[in-house]
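Exercise 7b. Backbone tokens:
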């Protein structure tokens, strides 16, 4: 590489990093305000939103939010976590065999089936919510946990099937043939031989679906509804801070408690997202 080329590359790389740093800063400012405001009194939140005074720093507001009678955050954690687990289990159990059939199929209808599922990625969930409410009401599942789990599971299928099928196309067919020679049927061959080596993409799906279900507000608010008495983290926060929208010493600590598990989970598992997406990127 010539000296002129190297000189041209350095400014380009510097500009790229400056743009990325500026974008990251803009995106992190709301998070920064949320975190520091959870430990500040009301007057300081209003007068100095970007600064924090060590002399007024306190954990009292966070403690009050954690033990509030208006919103039992620990119970909401348990409810939302149970929903996350059920949606992941049902979603992966349904999507994995379908993706296997699509990935191993050689006919046109296999590709059509994949396109049918992928088309669900282009339809906003809010568009389908009203028809889903009518269907669930007809089935007697509105304001029930099974109805909510069915909806959330169906919502995860497009991206799950897409990523699974892309990954499975990178898995050699020799494994299927070896399992068949040992007398295993297709179902047993998949779950015993193929599925265990899908850990990277399964981890990716777990992260994406878990954060999606944890952060969802519209679906549980409409499908479960206040009358069910079941609150997820997001709907619980809405119910708790709705009456106290001007009391920021209630709003910010409660919001911080709501998003903290999702942020920690994402930070720990983010490398699995990249690994799972890259693993299936050679074919798809």
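Sequence design result:
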């Amino acid at each position: 590489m010539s000296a002129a080329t190297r000189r041209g590359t350095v400014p380009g790389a510097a500009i790229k990093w400056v743009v990325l740093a500026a974008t990251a800063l803009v995106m992190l400012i709301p998070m920064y305000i949320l975190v520091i405001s959870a430990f500040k009194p009301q007057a300081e939140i209003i007068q100095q939103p970007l600064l924090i005074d060590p002399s007024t720093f306190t954990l009292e507001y966070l403690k009050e939010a954690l033990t509030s009678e208006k919103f039992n955050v620990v119970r909401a954690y348990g409810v939302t976590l149970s929903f996350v687990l059920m949606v992941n289990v049902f979603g992966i159990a349904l999507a994995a065999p379908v993706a296997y059939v699509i990935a191993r199929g050689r006919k046109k209808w296999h590709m059509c089936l994949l396109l049918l599922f992928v088309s669900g990625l282009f339809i906003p969930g809010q568009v389908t919510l009203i028809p889903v409410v009518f269907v669930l009401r007809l089935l007697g599942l509105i304001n029930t946990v099974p109805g909510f789990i069915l909806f959330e599971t169906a919502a995860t299928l497009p991206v799950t099937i897409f990523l699974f099928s892309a990954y499975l196309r990178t898995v050699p067919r020799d494994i299927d043939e070896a399992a068949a020679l040992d007398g295993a049927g297709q179902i047993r061959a998949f779950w015993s031989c193929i599925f265990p080596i899908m850990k990277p993409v399964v981890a990716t799906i777990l992260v994406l679906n878990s954060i999606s279900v944890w952060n969802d507000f519209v679906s549980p608010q409409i499908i479960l509804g206040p009358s069910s008495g079941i609150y997820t983290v997001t709907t619980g926060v809405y119910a708790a801070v709705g009456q106290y929208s001007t009391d920021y010493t209630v709003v910010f600590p409660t919001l911080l408690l709501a998003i903290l598990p999702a942020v920690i989970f994402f930070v720990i598992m983010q490398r699995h997202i990249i690994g799972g997406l890259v693993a299936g990127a050679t074919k798809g």
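Instructor comment: The chain has a mean pLDDT of 85. The chain has 13 helices and no strands.
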